[in-house]
Design goal:
This protein has 753 residues and is α/β, with parallel strands linked by helices. Helix content is 36%, strand content 17%. The protein is built from 20 helices and 26 strands. The chain has an 8-stranded mixed β-sheet with strand order 12-11-13-14-15-18-19-20, with helices on both faces. The longest helix has 35 residues, at 685-719. The radius of gyration is 47 Å and the shape is rod-shaped. The chain crosses the membrane at residues 623-648, 660-681, 693-717. This is Extracellular calcium-sensing receptor-like. Keywords: Cell membrane, G-protein coupled receptor, Glycoprotein, Membrane, Receptor, Signal, Transducer, Transmembrane, Transmembrane helix.
């Protein structure tokens, strides 16, 4: 039965066939036999090596042009190194070397222990990183397969082996610059318990300890930078934002986290465009058209700086120059973009999150003192030297001979980096370089804890504690002590691992134009975990302006109106409807209108409740005087008639006129005249409640009396007819009183309700 291990990605593949019989693996077997597969030629392997008591592995993407290979699987492909040296990754390498030399010279950290290094170039490809990692954990002379690496690993770190044999294997690797490479390397090294410390891999997925228990990083997880960007958008009241992201885990996970962090804060995405490296021109064109057509003035970008450069060039071609950008750490500090003419035209302003910058004392001096004469075996420095000074170091073939039509002149020996300004010597913005520096110190402190011998006198008598020595260090021991690392950096900051992650620390940067029209990077704040501190007055949004730009789908509803969402559109897009009479809204962007109290009314702007305006009939007015005179006259006349009827109540005329109903009628008329006086003068609560009920009851009482009197008269005339004598018994005094009371009670009940 055969097994196959597929490592890497097209077009670079590593296909290793492991045959079960050749492995010699049986139940309970602990012996791994050698396999027939041998590694590619390594005569020209690219690396930087320094032996020591403990050797630390390093993987850096120093060269960016991989060789062309023909994978026909008919013969072993020849070894070809990568080309085109990069200056910034070379600074990362020397930051690692500088930190190791600094620790070796320290009298307090790992005293008496010399740290070495084996540094390889990964060429920015997972395949090359895998090959280099297998070489590091298996020794320089190991074969290409994983089984052979395990063989050498077991020989180097097996319990029965007291010392390493052959070439030194590393117990730890600093590398894995991309999330994909870091995931592949971590899974590859997991069976060996070899820790991997990355200085740039920021994917949140790498925080999963169940999948990557041997992974650590000095770069914060992307979750924290996205949270910081979300806080910026909320703090600056940007509610309508366009997004352009890389179509990979970095971009897609980041925009998902951004949406989660801004949910409930009123922030909406106008559009989300994705960019793919292999189709960057067409994708950048599509994204530029979306930005041009959108009303969003703020654009959020999560992608690599080379993609942003193409996007800016497409925007420049369309004369889109009034947008503001929120930048992720992948491009916010890019020197290439800062120097690109399209950037100064397109970007009205850029506000971004950047990896925390720090100062490494003595590092600039160390870089400027580098010289091939002091490091004759340093191939990286030799090639860099020839590229910078355009000369040929005599004892080797020119590193860039393929790029030169004519042979390079020999170097004079007087060349120096003291006055050279390039990516290697520029230490004004030490960011990723500082992450590498921290990774080395984290390893050193873990080794210090591991190799620290306790005071024998302070140990219990029966204690079995022993001191570890460099020759007996196992990767598992380094892994365990890395989890417990907690120290103060030379710059005075606390450093520790929380699982795989370090405390999130970022810089907030702003691109600002100088008087000469060039762009410069200005520090305007810092982020520590969830705490964001920003000096808004230091931000330059456009040339000479500190006014915060506005990016909204709909302007905020002014006081006196309410928000009315549009059907089928994001919540950030809405209409503003005025409040109705008697309702107000006194804040900007109010979702609804509030009714006024009973004694108040809304003003004309519907922004405040004001006391109701009282319009009433005054006794001093002409109409009031007239109505009062008529009412008094009516009361007087009615009272006079009432007195006359009362005086002559025993006379036949009064008695024949139904005296009871007449007295009630005169009383109700007098009350009606008196009730009219209640409607004149300043109203009050009691008068408003009383006047309606009193007049209604009085008026109904008056009408009821008239109605009953009329019915009695009609009944009297009808009863005179033959056969209708019994009609009058239905209209006796009792029925008359009952009818009046019945009709009046109906009105009284209605008035009380």
């Amino acid at each position: 039965m055969s097994w196959f291990l597929w490592l890497g990605s097209a077009p670079s593949l590593l296909l290793v066939g492991l045959v079960g019989r050749e492995l010699g693996l049986g139940v309970g077997s602990q012996v791994v036999q050698a396999v027939t597969c041998s590694r590619w030629e390594t005569s020209g392997v690219t690396g930087l090596f320094q032996d020591g008591d403990v050797v630390i592995g390093g993987l850096f993407s120093l060269f960016y042009k991989p060789p062309a290979m023909d994978h026909d699987f008919t013969q072993l492909p020849p070894y070809k190194p990568c080309t085109r040296l990069q200056g910034l990754p070379l600074q990362y390498i020397y930051a690692m070397v500088f930190a190791l030399e600094e620790i070796n010279e320290s009298g307090t950290l790992l005293p008496g222990v010399k740290l070495g290094y084996h540094i390889h170039d990964s060429c920015g490809l997972s395949f090359w990183a895998l090959q280099a990692a297998l070489s590091l954990v298996g020794g320089k002379g190991s074969s290409c397969s994983l089984s052979a690496a395990i063989t050498n690993y077991s020989a180097a770190y097996g319990e029965e082996s007291g010392e390493r044999t052959g070439d030194q294997s590393v117990p730890l690797i600093i590398g894995g610059d991309s999330p994909n490479t870091a995931q592949i390397l971590s899974r590859l090294l997991r069976p060996l318990s070899v820790p991997l410390i990355s200085y740039t891999a920021s994917c949140p997925c790498l925080s999963d300890r169940s999948q990557f228990p041997n992974f650590f990083r000095t770069m914060p997880s992307d979750i924290y930078q996205v949270r910081a960007i979300a806080q910026l958008a909320i703090r600056l009241n940007w509610t309508w934002i366009g997004a352009v992201v890389a179509k990979n885990s970095y971009g897609l996970i980041s925009i998902k986290i951004f949406q989660e962090e801004t949910r409930g804060a009123g922030v909406c995405l106008a559009f989300v465009e994705t960019l793919r490296r292999e189709n960057i021109v067409s994708d950048a064109t599509r994204a530029a058209l979306a930005i041009q057509a959108s009303t969003a003035k703020v654009i959020l970008i999560f992608t690599w700086y080379t993609d942003v450069r193409e996007l800016f060039e497409q925007l420049d071609a369309r004369n889109v120059t009034d947008r503001h950008f929120l930048a992720s750490e992948a491009w916010s500090t890019s020197g290439d973009l800062l120097q690109n003419p399209s950037s100064s035209k397109v970007a009205s302003s850029v506000l971004g999150v950047a990896i925390r910058s720090s100062v490494i004392p003595g590092f600039e001096k160390y870089l400027r003192n580098l010289s091939p004469s002091h490091r004759p075996k340093d191939r990286f420095l030799r090639e860099f030297w020839e590229n910078v000074f355009l000369c040929h170091l005599g004892d080797t073939a020119p590193a860039n001979k393929l790029l030169q039509k004519d042979p390079l002149p020999p170097c004079s020996g007087t060349e120096s980096l003291q006055t050279v300004q390039n990516l290697l010597t520029d230490t004004s913005q030490v960011r990723v370089t500082y992450n590498v520096y921290l990774a080395v110190y984290a390893v050193a402190h873990a080794l210090h804890r591991l190799l620290l011998c306790p005071d024998i006198k302070s140990l219990p008598r029966n204690s079995s504690s022993t001191c570890s020595i460099p020759k007996h260090i196992k990767p598992m021991e380094v892994l365990q002590h890395l989890m417990k690392v907690n120290f103060t950096t030379p710059q005075g900051e606390m450093f520790y691992f929380d699982g795989a992650d370090v405390p999130a620390k970022y810089d907030l940067v702003n691109w600002q134009k100088t008087l000469g029209g060039k762009l410069k990077l200005v520090l305007i704040g810092r982020v520590d975990g969830y705490d964001l501190q920003m000096n808004e007055s230091a931000i330059q949004w456009s040339t000479g302006s500190n006014q915060v730009p506005v990016s909204v789908c709909s302007e905020s509803c002014r006081p006196g109106t309410r928000v009315a969402t549009r059907k089928g559109e994001p919540l950030c897009c809405f209409d503003c409807l005025p409040c109705t009479e008697g309702e107000i809204s006194n804040i900007t962007g109010s979702p609804n209108c509030e009714p006024c109290p009973p004694e108040f009314w809304s003003n004309s702007d519907r922004t405040a409740c004001v006391p109701r305006q009282l319009d009433f009939l005054s006794f001093n007015e002409t109409l009031g005087i007239t109505l009062t005179t008529v009412a008094v006259f009516g009361v007087t006349v009615t009272t006079t008639v009432f007195v006359v009827f009362l005086y002559y109540r025993q006379t036949p005329m009064v008695r024949a006129n139904n005296s009871e109903l007449s007295f009630l009628l005169l009383l109700s008329l007098k009350l009606c005249f008196l009730c009219s006086l209640v409607f004149i003068g300043r109203p009050s609560v009691w008068s408003c409640r009383f006047q309606q009920a009193a007049f209604g009851i009085s008026f109904v009482l008056c009408i009821s009396c008239l109605q009953v009197k009329t019915m009695v008269v009609l009944a009297a005339f009808r009863s005179a007819r033959p056969g209708a004598e019994a009609l009058m018994k239905w209209f006796g005094p009792g029925q008359q009183r009952g009818s009046v009371c019945f009709f009046t009670s109906i009105q009284s009940t209605g008035s009380s309700a």
